[in-house]
Specification:
The complex is a heterodimer of chains A (509) and B (317).
Chain A: H1 2-27, E1 37-51, E2 56-62, E3 69-77, E4 82-88, E5 91-98, E6 104-115, H2 139-152, H3 157-170, H4 174-179, H5 186-199, E7 204-211, E8 216-219, E9 222-228, E10 233-236, E11 249-254, E12 260-263, E13 265-280, H6 281-291, H7 306-315, H8 318-332, H9 341-352, H10 354-378, H11 382-406, H12 420-460, H13 463-471, H14 476-487, H15 494-499
Antiparallel strand pairs in A: 1-6, 1-13, 2-5, 2-12, 3-6, 4-5, 7-9, 7-11, 8-13, 9-10
Chain B: H1 7-12, H2 18-29, H3 35-39, H4 41-50, E1 58-62, H5 71-75, E2 81-85, E3 95-101, E4 104-107, E5 112-113, H6 115-126, E6 139-142, E7 161-167, E8 170-178, E9 194-198, E10 205-210, E11 213-215, H7 233-247, E12 251-259, E13 263-270, H8 276-281, H9 286-298, H10 303-316
Antiparallel strand pairs in B: 1-6, 2-3, 2-6, 3-4, 4-5, 7-8, 7-12, 8-9, 9-10, 10-11, 12-13
The chains are: A alpha+beta (509), B alpha+beta (317).
Amino acid sequence: MKRLHLPLLILLLTGISLGIFYHKVWNLGFPVLPAQTTDNWTVEARVAFESTGGALTARLFLPHEPPGFALLDEQFVSRGYGLATGMDADNRAATWTTRSPSGRQVLYYRASVYQLQRSLRTQPEYPGPAEAPDLDEPYRAAAEAIIDRVRARSADITSFATVLVRDMLSAADENMGLFLSQNTSERERVAVAIELLAGARIPARMAHGLQLTDRGRDLQPRTWLEVHNTREWVAINPNDGSVGYPDQFLVWWYGDGDLVELSRARNAQVSFAVSRNFQDAVDTAQQRAKLLNSRVMDFSLFGLPVQTQNMYRVLLMIPVGAMIIVLLRNVVGVQTFGTFMPVLIALSFRETELLGGVILFTLIVSLGLAIRFYLEHLKLLLVPRLAAVVSIVVMLMLALSILSHHMGIETGLAIALFPMVILAMTIERMSIVWEEHGAGDAIRQGIGSLMVAVAGYLLMINPYIEHLIFVFPELLLIVLAATLLLGRYTGYRLSELLRFRVLAGRSRP
Amino acid sequence: MKWFITPRELRRQGVLGMNRRNTHMIAALNPRSRYPLVDDKLRTKEVAIGAGIAVPELYGVIETNHDIRHLPTIVGGREDFVIKPAHGSGGNGILVITGRVGGQFRKASGLLEDLDGLKHHVSNILSGMYSLGGQPDRAMIEYRVRFDPLFGQVSFQGVPDIRTVVYRGYPAMAMVRLPTRASDGKANLHQGAVGAGIDIATGVTGHGVLHNGIVDRHPDTGAPLGGITIPDWGHLLELAAGCYELTGLGYLGVDVVLDRDLGPLILELNARPGLAVQIANGTGLLGNVESIDAQAAQTALGPAARVAFMRGLALRE
């Protein structure tokens, strides 16, 4: 058990981390790559009519759990009207009422929808076999003939509907001619299909929706056929019999009711306008998570004030930098001044840019070292000497800032972001190593620290890693697991392969 | 010589790496509660004296900056002495005074230092400049070992010492550490001292290691490092092995000096002995570690029996 403790812990951490990550990516659609945008559509329905006097009621169907879309947000623009929304059979409806309208009235409904990979629609139960229509001759015989012909060439409910629609479109035989004429509209054709399907006891209904196109104006809803295959509603294209809705088809309402119903008003005109906007994928995912009532968002960084978020954007990278230090020190064997000094230096490189940061760091440390060597002659106590080094580092930073400003090099100003106490400690430790172990060791460790800082910096500014850690902070559990795993690394360090090279070729006595 | 060695070859030779030393040796065998005993050289000295183990005589201790004024009293009329931090590491902060010239003190390097210089050095020690973690420290003034002329030809000033790595009470490997001009009289390998491996069975030195490379002669004196027989070797090993009972540390470095008059003295103990001893002996530690583990699993032995076991092991090889 003791031997398994750490591996199990590591597996557990990795499992939790990947589990949350998977959920957020696949179910909530959080973007794995930075600066991703998602297709958001804003659909606006404009309802115009003329009042005929007296208290007025206008009822508009609204999209409800449209297949392939998530409804992110909706707004109603209707000054002076009372508004109620509710379910009306298969549809959701908005009902506007007002007591004393006059003249031409315009109401707006605006929804923003987001295209999903899967459907959020809850499937109603099977309504039971449809009631056979009561048809007169010769329609009755014709319908039966059509149904028999179709049934002979189909396998199940869906293929029955497909074959029927195709037969209707070719409309070659005289039986079909009884139901359809040359100028039958799409909607009428769907109505006929529903009647014929009812003859085969197959429940079917109309669906009306919009084919979303960017900057579309005055779009007209199109009618689609849905049949119930005893498990779910299947969409059939009334124009070619194919199964399923096309891409970017937003189902608005079901049934043969009209989109708008008015009382004490007339001349209803509905027009749709659509625009596509790209929204930050993270925002969209958040809205969806809210819609799905996901607990994940309760623990999200995005609920914090933006300033705090920006702070965590930096802070969350520190564990990654710390892991790099572990890797470089325990596996590679690079010597550095102080354990985590390079991470702090790397953090300040974020502000100064790499080249400027390396130059400024080298400049400050070497100038500081020179002055520190002079201080050595004054024979000061440790703490006052450290305090003196801190003061000198601050003054050096100021001098470099002023100098670089006069020379027009603006990165010199960012030097103020270097952690001065860390710099002072680095100078102090470097001078002690210099005196006791010689210049070689001191410079080697100094360069080692700088290299580790640069490696940490390059990793920490990587936009992909930063994005991943910020959007999926649970990945830090994997960083933690990796660090724990490295904590058990007892193999040789790369540097030891050099250190013990003289032993190469010797046989064990 | 190849410029690197493969991990496979290192494993075959049983070389102990830094990571393995830290986990399997130090973390597993050295209880943290025992560290103060070896990190504080004053306490080491007290415990060693209590156990009858020979150590250099302590002249005095300075604990506060105020007490620095007692330094001349402690030093008294003594010609030579050593000032060292009680919590020093890696031989840092040790000041060896070999004699007096007028009012001044001669350092091991031959340079002169006045009393103010000594006081400043003590003050640095007290402020924690040489201690692990920089905590305030105490300064010890003690007997300067007059080293045995045995190593006279192979050391440049300073005091050569014999480092024995004691694993679970068994002297696993040993080397003699010889100061060079570059190491400024200090017997520390990373400061440029030469280490020469010692055959556990016979007490005879072999080739040396300098900056991770193998040398056969001392870089300053040019005298051959090998073939020097350490007198009373068995006694010295027993002294080192006995420090296991003293400290309870399973992975221990024992530094012994050979005094001309007093014989072997324990200079200091180290709870984190380094790995260079393997280069000096031209082989890895893990071979002996395995044999010791097997032996220790069978019976618990006293220091003398442990030394006998190791010498027998070395002879068989």
